[in-house]
Amino acid sequence: MSFSTPDTFRPVILDDVRGAQKMLSGVARVTALEGSRHLTGLVGAPVRLKCENLQRTGSFKLRGAYVRISCLRPEERAAGVVAASAGNHAQGVALASSLLGVRSTVFMPVGAPLPKVAATREYGADVRLQGQIIEETLDAAREYADRTGAVFIHPFDHPDIIAGQGTVGLEILEQCPEVRTIVVGVGGGGLAAGIAVAVKAIRPDVRVVGVQAAGAAAYPLSLAAGHPVSLVSPVTMADGIRVGRPGDVPFRIIEELVDEVRTVSEDELSSALLLCLERAKLVVEPAGAAPVAALLSDPRAFAGPVVAVLSGGNVDPLLLQRVLRHGMAAAGRYLSLRLRLTDRPGALAALLGSLSVLDANVLDVSHVRTDPRLGLTEVEVELQLETKGPEHCGAVASGLRDAGYTVTVIH
């Protein structure tokens, strides 16, 4: 069975997106557009956050999935649908199918986060765990479609999917008519393509900027080559945009309508996620934080008002814990020090007293007494500290030196 049917290659136009908006009325939420004082200060122009992390199922994916399944013929609906996903698309297809009374089967990788597996089942899908990596899971879903006649619902490479995602762009224009730049994360490209179709048809002067994780940046290579290029092994914590090859349909749209595709590092993604939590009070997954990461990395590059699309908030708690630690480290909130003390009672207490005065929180202390480089009465202490940021790190190290300690900062 081929998934590149003639229908797949029809163009997506503004009327398609407006039709999708009517289909989604009462189904998808018109998500909030929240201001960010902190980002506004950095950029030097108003910055607003389009909160698709607060959409039903926790991401924008419901929009495209619902439109795609709504457009199926009666005999296709009767055959059921099948999808493959590690998270957001799985939940979008599961809920859309339940709302439309269509049987859905969703293949997920064996190592998919348990909360995402549970949520997909609760939305009504028959979940099957198969494959160690998403490519193996996709193969299993396609084999199932061939064998059963179920319709394969691609996560981004179909005009109906793109039209559904484009409703985010219509909402942005309605909520912020004065917008000059829209920044959106890019994986396969469905969301960015849909937004570009809607926005450029109404406001061609608005810049649409795509953002990819540097370790999974297939679009810059593909745009330079003039056709989709596959990455051998994309690597990023942002699983929502960890896609090895652009979709054929969104690629053509992005090539024509998207003004720029930027990349961001893992450190920038972590810092952006931390900022969303601390400053905006929003839980956002790494892929959803990609537009904020782009603003943090080069804040003066974006003409305002700017709208950054927070595409999803489905982050596994264990990953969130690791990302927050990484983000705090990238933001200079941790400090590792090594110093020597006289090995006598009270020496460590005196050191900890100095750290208390300097307002540094001690996370971990370790001692070394057996190193041959140490004097007979010396002990080496290694400290892991939590600080308030890079300036505070410098103040802590300087304060300890002023107190008479020989301090080595561990990078």
What does this structure look like?
It is a single chain. Helix 3 packs across helix 5 and helix 9 runs parallel beside helix 11. The protein has a 6-stranded mixed β-sheet. The protein has a 4-stranded parallel β-sheet with strand order 5-4-3-6, sandwiched between helices. The chain has a 4-stranded antiparallel β-sheet with strand order 12-13-11-14, covered by helices on one side. The chain has 411 residues and is α/β, with parallel strands linked by helices. The chain has 3 domains: 226 residues, Rossmann fold; 92 residues, 3-Layer(aba) Sandwich (Rossmann fold), CATH 3.40.50; 79 residues, 2-Layer Sandwich (Alpha-Beta Plaits). It has 16 helices and 14 strands. Helix 6 links the parallel strand 4 and strand 5. The chain is elongated, with a radius of gyration of 25 Å. Keywords: Allosteric enzyme, Lyase, Pyridoxal phosphate.
